[in-house]
Amino acid sequence: MRAMKQLDPKPEVMARRSEIIAGLRRILPERAVIAQAVELKPYETDALTAYRQVPLAVVLPEDEAQVVDVLKFCAAGGVRVIPRGAGTSLCGGALPLADSVVVGLMRMNRILEINYADRYAVVQPGVTNIGITQAVADAGYFYAPDPSSQLACMIGGNVGMNSGGAHCLKYGVTANNLLGLRLVTVAGEVLEIGGAHCDAAGYDWLGLITGSEGQLGILTEVTVRILHAPEGARAMLAGFASNEVAGECVAAIIASGIIPVALEFMDKPAIHACEAFAHAGYPLDAQALLIIEVEGSQDEQADMLGRLREICERFAPVSMRVAQTEAESAAIWKGRKGAFGAVGRISPDYLCMDGVIPTSRLGEVLRRIEEMSAAYDLRVANIFHAGDGNLHPLIMYDANDPASFAKAERFGAEILTLCVEAGGCLTGEHGVGVEKRELMRVQFSESELTQMRAMKDVFDPQWLLNPAKVFPL
Amino acid sequence: MQTNFTPAQLADPEIAVANEILRRCVHCGMCTATCPTFVTLGDELDSPRGRIYLIKDMLESGRDAGAEEALHIDRCLSCLSCVTTCPSGVDYMHLVDHARVHVEKTFNRPLADRLMRAGLAWVLPHPARLRAALLLARPARGLGFLLPGHGMLAKRLRAMLRLAPGAVPRAAPLGRVYQAVGARRARVALLAGCAQQVLAPSINAASIALLNRLGVEVVIPPEAGCCGALVHHMGRHEAALAAARANVAAWMAQVEGEGLDAVLVNTSGCGTVVKDYGFLLRHEDCAAGAAKISSLTQDISEFLMKFYEPVRAAPGLSVAYHAACSLQHGQQVTAQPKTLLRKAGFKVVEPKDAHLCCGSAGTYNLMQPEIASALRRRKLDTLRALGPDVIAAGNIGCLTQLAGDGVPTVHVVELLDWMAGGEKPQALR
């Protein structure tokens, strides 16, 4: 692994290590403090294992009062703090620093309130994304944003990264489904932002906090909008002869004015890896596959599927199939949602990109990525939310070969630069984290970055909360 | 995921296997969500991904296992829910098996721990010893509250007394061959098991009666004994291999003699291990035989799919089907028991979070009583919410764990046998 530039640990904090741990033990239950070297090791990374750093300690608070105590204690000692949920970040959002205390929120996993009449739920940050839907599904409701890691990822992290998902084409991302937050600032002050109602008056604090990557405070409660589940939904598979043709088909669907609930793209390597995992009946002979889902009454579904068929047929599909049963639909989505992990079947390691481009440029950008793949001699699997133009090229490499990783990093940077040049942006839903930190200059001018840093200064003047993320060092 | 083994380390075939498994893992974290201990304890270290990382670090460094590794590896139920969830196909089972052996070999457990484990390994796989132990425990059964202390030892002893049955069934020695009724359609070996035959001889009795009635001859070679799963999951590799070798020899003699269509297992915890004999014994002289036995092994519900026919009228009972982890995750046998129960005329209902373990997991409910009882409570709550007449499962461990909460518990095969003309299960009378 290439040594990544990292903030230097504060010598005065490192020198007081045992004192800090003793202090944490005083304010927290015994089972909530992890400080043994062997036990800290698994906390050195998240789902971006290319970057690793063992923290000074890990704490697992069980309620808001403990979060307040930990933050007050750390702020008083100038100790850096890394918030962590399920540790599923693909951009190193939960990567520790050597002198940091990781605050894991996994134990704050209770659903506090469900209100069907007013369609909201209040949950703790450690509730999994799918946990919210599971809690309200029997009553016919769901929580709309659905990251592919929704089985495991936690709502606190979803807010921090403003996560998206396959069904965000229709329903919007986390920011569009959020009503309120409780947040502990680094000074230990509890802020209540928004609430179980629409659009609070005044400045849009919710908008500011959502996507702030744990740099402005630690969440202790999240109030989300829950929606009535649709009457039904059906997924359709359309295979195409090339990435570019499939990309053009996506642009045509969007241009037609139809908004399917999801419009997902997989290329050939992804199709094969996912089929091996999910046995969903993906077309193995296609070079590219679109998963298109529509929802509503039977009539609405039939009407939309008919129109989508007509559009797809203009692009000479090699196969088209509509799921006939719920089990078929479930298998189709199981493959798509497990796609990143499934790539583990064909490559020991991957870097997952998250660039966004205008949908009209899909075909062209995909062709450029193919050319880069050949030039770098690294395979790419493309799995992404095509309807939003949110690309997830997975660059496959071998982490046991340092040269391979260095190449993969450069390849990734080139893809993201291409996305920005095509009129898009660096990250659609995963966040900047450490992975895209240095690339922020490709997207933003120095004065724009200075303005953003000024906002962080207001909340966290000592830069203790998740400090080495988002901004170039 | 990156690994850091030296070429010398990789020359060890066991490490080479572990390396391949670790390289498959992409550390995505999906497994954490369906892991019973992560859901209960909320710590990465008690999740599959955290354990994989601990094991990776321990093996790479070549160090002996310490108290921390032992703690978190011991807390793993080996329920293999993570294997069902994993999109990358990480073979967690063989990795954690390897780690358990490493812990057993290199970690010096506290004395009380060692005694407890040695005692369980000495008693459980041997029906006569287990029977004697249960008879001894019976008068003390309700006296667990008198055991002082909050230490692990006291908690474990109380858990043992709680799990000891109120009445120990009369010893029911098994014969060697049970002839098919009418024309013989198949010939199978049945793993009679160890603890099951002591705790609930009715399960083997129902299995044999049902198979015979369906035209299947059942052979139980007396040379075959415990499958080795109990000691295997304690990391006692040599004892596990010895048990496996004995069974392979006993069943291969049948294969080479009168022939076998299948080796049937009606205790899914054992079935998972017998299906893995091919891997377990891959370096032994009997490797080919072990692979043959593994390929012949089926859970009894898999085998019955082709043969089962009910004869009685549907009893109108609602059966809550509890999927044993060894069956649903270890063997990926999910539909068959439910299909058979429906065919038999039962209404089959399933609990929420059916993927979560009930906490039984071999000796887990004795060794980790706190986590096991939290999982038991959670499972029973979801089962009771269904308002069932009876809880059915395909594993004696689960049945023991879930018993005593007011809803009768029976083995799936006992219900199937009843509807095929056998006796009504004792628990329903």
TrEMBL record, chain B:
- SUPFAM superfamilies recorded for this chain? 4Fe-4S ferredoxins (SSF54862)
What does UniProt give as the signal peptide span? Answer: none
Q: Which domain of life is it from?
A: Bacteria
The cofactor required is: [4Fe-4S] cluster
The UniProt keyword set, sorted, is: 4Fe-4S, Electron transport, Iron, Iron-sulfur, Metal-binding, Repeat, Transport
Reaction(s) the record says it catalyses: glycolate + A = glyoxylate + AH2; (R)-lactate + A = pyruvate + AH2
Which stretches are transmembrane?
none
* Start and end residues of each 4Fe-4S ferredoxin-type domain: 13-44, 67-96
Annotated Gene3D superfamilies: Alpha-helical ferredoxin
Question: Cofactor note from UniProt?
Answer: Binds 2 [4Fe-4S] clusters.
**Alphabetical list of InterPro entries matching this protein:** 4Fe4S_Fe-S-bd, 4Fe4S_Fe_S_CS, Cys_rich_dom, Glc_ox_4Fe-4S, Helical_ferredxn
| Enzyme Commission code | 1.1.99.14
The UniProt record lists the keyword Repeat? yes
Q: What does this protein do, in the record's words?
A: Component of a complex that catalyzes the oxidation of glycolate to glyoxylate.
**Name assigned to this protein:** Glycolate oxidase iron-sulfur subunit
Q: Which organism is it from?
A: Acidocella aquatica
